[in-house]
Design goal:
This protein is α+β, with helices and mostly antiparallel strands and about 350 residues long. The protein has two domains: about 1-205, CV3147-like domain (CV3147-like fold), CATH 3.40.1610; about 220-355, CV3147-like (Beta Barrel), CATH 2.40.390.10. It is about 35% helix and about 30% strand. It has twelve helices and 18 strands. A hairpin with a 1-residue loop joins β13 and β14. The longest helix is centred in the first third of the chain and has 15 residues, at about 25-40. It is globular and about 60 Å long. The mean pLDDT is about 90. This is DUF917 domain-containing protein. It holds the Pfam family S-Me-THD_C.
């Protein structure tokens, strides 16, 4: 068991923003909420999966909706409290631990807020190893664990419990609900024991985010260290020259064009995103696709850039890393591969794309 302090939150938020591949909501908002909760209620205990007792249950909590909406319609403590209370009321049992649904953006921070408020530990794991835009896109769903019933709450005191026939139906119905209720809601789902987590969660992602965040915050050669020490790949250096972005159906969708600089001068990089970065092309050649991770990093600060924060003139590096092996299976690719999102590309592991290009 480890203690997570306010100083740790700074690094975890930064690292989770990188692992979130541009999505998961604004990490700055989540960081402020977590810092405030720890200041008010005390530090949070971080445990490994094996430290959960055999009969104890853990739940995931997150924000569902378009990241662009979350910048203006901020998640609050009241909606988190409401979702937590309705979740416990429905299941008739206490939640003994919490873990992030995804290790990205604001959704990496929301569990810390609840853990501090309720005095329960947070598990060093998550359900994606990155961020994805739809509710069935987690390692629990692809393992056959239903994401229903699912509890939702908004900032006005409204709450909803959705019971569906399968995980895909949960996504469709909840997305319509999110769209109707202002573009974002707090969601609580799953009741997971140690066996579920050991088999299906992506382990040690909070610790990984903390290590990555510390490199970003303290190193003058952050990209080089990430490439050398964390099996990441530098795909491109450039300046953003155009961003075509719109919010619809509970998602932020769009394309960013990046004009090459330095060794990539006279080249053009295209990033396609739906909440998260999904496709990276350089001069129309595929360099990386979902489910592998694509992240834009500010060249001045090394801070990861979210899809809702991309702006003309930003100078950035595009880096990529391997997805968790669960996403590289036939079922994983069918669930989150490029063809699912409507792109006419076959999934090829990023390391093979890099090797073939060289």
């Amino acid at each position: 068991m480890k203690t997570i302090t306010q100083n740790d939150i700074e690094d975890i938020a930064l690292g989770a923003a990188l692992l979130g591949t541009g999505g998961g909501g604004d990490p700055f908002i989540g960081k402020l909420m977590a810092l405030s909760a720890i200041e008010k209620y005390g530090d949070v205990k971080l445990i490994n999966i094996d430290e959960l007792k055999d009969k104890q249950k853990a739940a995931t909590f997150c924000m569902v909706g378009a990241p662009t909406v979350g910048v203006e319609k901020l998640p609050n403590f009241e909606s988190l409290e409401k979702a937590y209370e309705e979740y416990q009321k429905y299941y008739g049992s206490n939640i003994e631990a919490i873990l992030p649904a995804e290790i990205g953006g604001v959704n990496s921070m929301i569990p810390f807020v609840l853990a501090a408020m309720k005095g329960i530990p947070i598990i060093d794991a998550d359900g994606m190893g990155r961020a994805f835009p739809e509710m069935q896109m987690d390692t629990f769903s692809i393992a056959g664990i239903p994401n229903t019933p699912s509890v939702f709450a908004d900032e006005k005191g409204n709450s909803f419990i959705i019971k569906t026939k399968d995980s895909e139906a949960t996504e469709k119905i909840s997305r319509a609900l999110v769209d109707t209720m202002g573009g974002s809601l707090i969601n609580g789902v799953y009741l997971l024991d140690k066996s579920d987590l050991n088999k299906n969660a992506v382990p040690n992602t909070i610790s990984l985010a903390k290590k990555i965040g510390r490199i970003i915050r303290t190193s003058k050669t952050a990209v080089d260290e990430l490439v050398n020490d964390y099996e990441m790949f530098q795909l491109f250096n450039g300046k953003i020259t155009d961003v075509d972005r719109k919010t619809s159906g509970g998602f932020v969708r769009g394309t960013a064009k990046i004009e090459g600089i330095e060794s990539d001068k006279n080249k053009v990089c295209t990033i396609e995103f739906q909440n998260e970065n999904l496709i990276c092309l350089v001069d129309n050649q595929v360099m990386c696709t979902t489910p592998d991770l694509i992240t834009l990093i500010d060249k001045e600060t090394a801070n990861p850039l979210t899809t809702e924060g991309l702006k003309y003139g930003m100078r950035c590096s595009v880096i990529a890393s391997k997805a968790d092996n669960r996403w590289r299976t036939e079922k994983g690719i069918r669930t989150v591969g490029p063809k699912y999102f409507g792109y006419d590309y076959e999934y090829v592991p990023v390391e093979k794309l890099i090797r073939d290009r060289v």
